[in-house]
Design a protein that fits this description.
The protein has 21 helices and 21 strands. With 613 residues, the protein is α+β, with helices and mostly antiparallel strands.
Length: 613
């Protein structure tokens, strides 16, 4: 499949994006000292560091073995090739938050290199058929390095009192020396939604293997994106070779061409201001676009420290459009996009803003870290030539089931619809689903689709306040029973939602008691959380309700355009409909099948819209 080209005004452009992920390792101490590796924001300022972290003369680094093990485990989980020998280097640059004047990193021989990862992209569009696709990204390297200190902007006394003073910058050394894994990809992305899906998969993998808690808001995971746009006939060869071979995969194994789905996702992701051009990237465009004064692009802009998946999508897509508009506004081939570092302002303007210029090549003067010997790992336990406690093959055996393996197992064992499978990605329910459907569990699920789309998805989406996934593990047996009872039409989605909320707020003894199906059913009957009306009786009550509430139905129907067909998503987002639905519920004391009644409402309102009221 050729790269996706987009057209904003004059020309076609192909965005190229690469990513760097900085993940803080879940270790008890820092990378080169015994100082506690805790969240710097939870400690008193400048209270959590040792002498080496602040570069006191005479202090020496001592490598944290657990951090090396975490790095190897992460590399193996992501599919990188672990180097038997890696070395540390000093990267020299001068900022106030770097007391030594250099950072210890792995430039020449990193811990791991190469490899690739296949990550899922779920296209969730209620107005069209949901799709689950896969893309593949290549890795450049994974290296260990220590973090810098944190700068804190504090208003001066005059500024705090409303005067004309500004701010002063202070340094908090608590974060200095924290262990980081820098994961660098090849420039294999094109749009923000692709990067966001990839980062979500990385987060899942790191959480599964326990090497990083991935708390964006605390800074334990930060993402940098390098963005450039190119004319279709000037794409760098190393990008074009890969993008041409990167097929969209609907099942994880079988390659299919899904161009229309890609086009729609690009339009939703980047902007409705652009159109997708499916011409081959290698085809020379021989129209007026080939004029000698035509801009060709290619200048790389780096967006630093993006701390949210949502902001990642917004920042990359904004930067792509910003660069295209700048190129198309110029009259000659001179690049007016500066090679610079930018930040994303997520609070007010939601755009990238300039931080510092990168037109001058910075000489980091990489030198070997002479205080740290080469890091040598054992490939197998029998390798007596290496004196190391870390064995690559043993670490690989200790890996738990990874998200992609769990999804493949679910796809093999359960015939899930694409939409239900997508909830495993969208709501991070993969661990819970795997827990409930495990063969070792006492309750066997009759229909996995019901468990996901009708129980968990409904509970998490409609509950106020919203239910956290972690809390559902406490009542996993009860949820499995509720799912099976739903299949037997004993209760509906609204009953399940109320039951889950009541169970979560109950005490430990009651939760233990209701693990038994008989006790759970008796409790549901006592609370009247079950269906008492048959479908024929519900239909009769509904028809009577329609006659007495004709004007209310008409009012809801007027919210939609004449002649259109309402779907379940559009109806579910209409406030007037919810008031009408609740009125019918009160009339039947909520003893009807709400899912069946919802379809009756949908049919009746579509009849109103198709008529002239």
């Amino acid at each position: 499949m050729s790269p996706t080209a987009i057209r904003v005004n004059k020309f076609c452009w192909v965005p190229i994006v690469g990513v760097e992920i900085h993940a803080q390792i879940n270790s008890l101490s820092k990378l080169f000292s015994s100082a506690p590796n805790t969240n710097s924001s939870k400690c008193a300022l400048n209270s959590n560091f040792h002498l080496f972290d602040v570069s006191m003369p005479g202090s020496l680094p001592r490598l944290n073995e657990y951090c090396v093990e975490a790095g190897v485990k992460t590399a193996l989980a992501l599919g990188l090739r672990v180097n038997k020998v890696s070395v540390f280097d000093r990267k020299h640059y001068f900022y106030a938050d770097l007391p030594a004047g250099y950072q210890i990193t792995q430039q020449r021989m990193p811990l791991a290199v190469g490899g690739h990862l296949k990550y899922p992209i779920y296209t969730s569009d209620f107005l069209s058929k949901a799709k689950l696709r896969h893309l593949k990204v290549r890795f450049d390297r994974l290296q260990l390095e220590h973090d810098s200190a944190k700068t804190v902007n504090v208003p001066t006394s005059d500024h705090a009192q409303g005067g004309g003073g500004g701010e002063k910058v202070l340094i908090d050394m608590n974060r200095c020396g924290a262990p980081l894994m820098e994961i660098v990809t090849q420039p294999d992305f094109q749009f923000g939604y692709q990067v966001a899906s990839f980062v979500e998969e990385i987060v899942w993998i790191l959480k599964t293997i326990g090497t990083c808690d991935c708390r964006f808001h605390e800074g334990s995971l930060r993402v940098d994106a390098s963005v450039s746009v190119h004319r279709p006939d000037s794409i760098p060869r190393h990008c074009l070779d890969y993008v041409d071979s990167n097929k969209h995969d609907a099942t994880g194994d079988e390659d299919v061409d899904d161009s229309n789905s890609v086009d729609e996702e690009v339009r939703r992701s980047i902007s409705f201001r652009c159109i997708v051009d499916r011409r081959s990237s290698t085809e020379t465009i021989t129209t007026a676009e080939n004029a000698s004064a035509q801009p060709i692009g290619g200048t790389i802009v780096e967006i630093k420290n993006i701390n949210s998946v949502k902001f990642l999508t917004e920042a990359i897509d904004y930067e792509i459009l910003r660069q295209i508009e700048l190129y198309e506004a110029c009259d000659d081939t001179k690049s007016i996009v500066e090679n610079e570092t930018r930040a994303y302002n997520s609070k007010a303007e939601r755009k990238t803003v300039g931080m510092r210029d990168k037109t001058k090549v910075h000489d980091y003067r990489f030198l070997p870290e002479t205080n740290l010997p080469p890091l040598v790992l054992k490939c197998t336990p029998g390798d007596e030539s290496v004196k190391s406690h870390l064995v690559i093959s043993e670490i690989h055996k200790s890996l738990p089931q990874l998200p992609q393996q769990i999804r493949a197992k679910i796809a093999e064992n359960y015939n899930l619809t694409s939409h239900s499978f997508g909830t495993l990605l969208e709501y991070e329910l993969l661990d819970f689903f795997n827990h409930v459907t495990s063969h070792s569990r006492p309750v066997k699920i009759k229909d996995a689709d019901t468990l996901l789309s009708l129980v968990l998805y409904t509970s998490l989406r409609k509950a106020r306040p919203q239910i956290k996934v972690e809390s559902l593990f406490e009542i996993s047996d009860q949820i499995a029973h509720l799912s099976n009872l739903k299949d037997e039409t004993f209760l509906d989605s609204s009953h399940i939602l109320k039951a889950v909320q009541l169970l979560l707020n109950s005490d430990v003894d009651f939760k233990h008691k209701t693990r038994d199906l008989g006790n759970l059913v008796n409790w549901l009957i006592e609370k009247k959380l079950h269906i008492t009306y048959e479908k024929d009786e519900t239909t009769r009550l509904f028809d009577s309700f329609c006659l007495t509430n004709h004007e209310r139905f008409k009012s809801v129907a007027e919210e939609f355009e004449q002649g259109m067909t309402i779907d379940s998503y559009a109806l579910d987002t209409c406030p007037k409909f919810h008031k009408l639905q609740n009125k019918f519920g009160r009339a039947t004391k909520f003893q009807h099948d709400s899912d069946f009644t919802f379809q009756l409402f949908l049919q009746k309102l579509n009849e109103f819209i198709s008529s002239k009221y």
